[in-house]
Amino acid sequence: MQRSLKSPITRNMELNDILRHITDLFEKQLNIQELRDIKIVVGLSGGADSMLMYKCLKDLAEKYRFNLIPVHVNHLIREGATDQAKILARYIKDKYDDRLFVISFDAVKYSKKFRCSLEEAGRQGRKKIFNKILEDKKARFIALGHNLDDNVETIIYRLCRGTGIFGLRGMTFQEGLILRPLIYLRRELIREIVRKESLFYLEDESNLDDRFTRNRIRLHIVPELLKINHKALEHIGALCEDARAFEDIIKKEISLVLKELHMVKTKDFIILKLPQIS
Fold this sequence. Notes:
By secondary structure, the protein is an alpha/beta fold. Helix content is 52%, strand content 12%. The protein is built from nine helices and eight strands. β7 and β8 (270-273) form a beta hairpin. α1 packs across α2 (48-64) and α2 (48-64) packs across α7 (187-196).
């Protein structure tokens, strides 16, 4: 199977290379001419990933004349999170002259009420908030800062819980209203660029708490995979591409078969007449 997009080289890349890569994704995957004057909600955690994404999207927005709505969700978990949100809002205002929408969401209370993990509570909370702002502001897309490492962690998590072949497809650049501009980039590359360019970002201490499943995968399992092969994450990312291509083929074939079916409705039954095989 031919892969539609390959992971870029993870070394010796500069900020301009990252910007060209993201621009290429937008031009290949979206109707770029229709982006003019639309609004994109951008999830800003304040971490290195989201801050690099915002920097690149601001440059892209100037070129294609679309608008960004930065949103930060404060899960009220960490001590000092509210102060960090204020620092982030001040930076976005001073640097880009943009208003950062800071929304508080009590993830602990939500997890107890709906009997789910804190991780799942945070995920559901962010999803509800982003979708609400998307609707209220009449935006077209939601941009999230997921990277290749996040994608691999998702695949490992699904494998541990049990998944089929379609669960291997992972996350893509575009899924409906969701855009992931950094999805083909390694986390180490993103941090390297952020440090090199002296970009502002906030450290989230909860990322080091291995009581969270995803953190255990990130801190303990992924390093072992990289010891086996330093390109292990890129190879898993390529497997995701294959799984997506395979799923697309299956869906296309099923669609062709369904078009050939003849449906006859009676009072009590729906009868499907299969096409004759010549």
